[in-house]
Amino acid sequence: MTGSAFGFVGEINERGLFDTMAISNPGWDACKMPGSKAAKSIINMALRGIWAGVLKRGESMMVHDPSSHTDSAGVPEGHPPITGFLGAPLKEGGRTFGMIALANKKTHYTTSDRKAVEDLSISFVETLMRHRAESRLRRYRKAVESSRELIAVVDRKYRYQLVNHAFLAQWKSKRELIIGRSVEEVLGREVFEHTVRSHLDACFKGEDVSFEMQREYPEMGVRDLEVNYFPIRDDGGVTQIVAVMRDVTEQKLLEARLRQSQKMEAVGRLAGGVAHDFNSLLTSIIGFSDVVKMKMGRDNPLCEYMEEIRKARDKAAALTRQLLAFSRKETVQPRVVDLNFRITDALKMLERLIGDDVRMVTRLDPDLWKVKIDPGQVDQMVMNLVVNAGDAMPTGGTLTLETANKDLATFFIDREAEQRPKRYVILVVSDTGMGMDEETLSHIFEPFFTTKGIGKGTGLGLSTVYGVVKQNNGFIRPVSEEGKGTTFNIYLPAVEEEKLIVNS
Q1: Helix axes 461-471, 249-296, angle to 10 degrees
Q2: Which of 10, 309, 445, 459 has its CA at 20 to 30 Å from residue 161's CA atom?
Q3: 168-172, 198-202, 254-258, 319-323, range with the lowest pLDDT
Q4: Which helix (H) or strand (E) holds 28?
């Protein structure tokens, strides 16, 4: 390009000396320095002379008369004379680690020559860094490619140098569309500036970095990612970062379920203990109030008050039963039950519970499979769901009860369990009421949580439903949206063989 007699490319080694990485054939042939031929392509030279000024200053230099230059230190014995010089530094992350040098052009070097060599040095560094990264990781590529974790290598300019198959699969992209692009381009400016950049900068300073972030995918929605950055060090410091990302969405979901389960178990124990003590007191109240009423006679003016005491004790007894059911300390007698029969038999009572403004619709599968459950638990579960639905429609609406058979694969049901039945009976209770936001929906099965006013709800209705469903190896999935109503989908395992059906 420049018509120079010879040139070389080199870098500073770990001992602070200069090693030539490549040298032109004319320069190699002209060099008569002692030992240079034995060293073949590597010549160690102390950092002095004009060319060393490029390394010290970190800037390109163009010298027309090297012998009179302030940096001139002559040439070593056997080195060809220098009549003109042009050099440009090799820089990575602001650090000068080597140079490209040309010498002995027949005419003076020009600014065009200088610009060409500066551009060449930039291109050379990019190629060199990419080559070294690939060489460093080549032996690990098979393990990286087969890893389920998302792995990428990023250079100091925040550009992707390597990504594995798992990374491409989750990003739904091709390797050629990722390699060479910046992290900002791939993740988006907002995520890069507010979440990723500060962590990358910390890692380039030599720190191992761990953090969590969320990313939204077109097909999978929002996913939680656990990200770990590890610095790759070279002689001059950190040159690249290995990013290892793991999708922890399912793990966080299971952890949340475990915490919820532990919390409900603890509260259940407390509720069970309180219920037993309260039941003992209630037994005395019921017995003595009945005796008093018998002795008072119907004409006694105090009978009205005794009737109020009777109503209060019946409510207290019902609350005790709910507490015992929630804590799973109530004695249950599972039987093979026709769910349709239990619902149909309870319709008149259920209609009275929801009032005249709510229309009740039933869609019951006539070929419904049977389930094994305590009939009283079915009544209690349906009653609580219907009462809740009625309360959610104070100005009226439609309440729908549906049953159906469903054949499901294990992993679609509950990933926290290794073995699940495939045949389920589904009970769906839906309303057209006020609905709930996501925050409220996340708390509805917690004991004593209620959105009703003081004195209008105990917060045990849905907790009891949850307890009954879990006790019978089923699962429940609520769906709700503000202003669009709520739907409870309850899945109960179907019995595998026909047995005597007990409907009462």
Answers
A1: 110
A2: 10
A3: 319-323
A4: helix 25-30
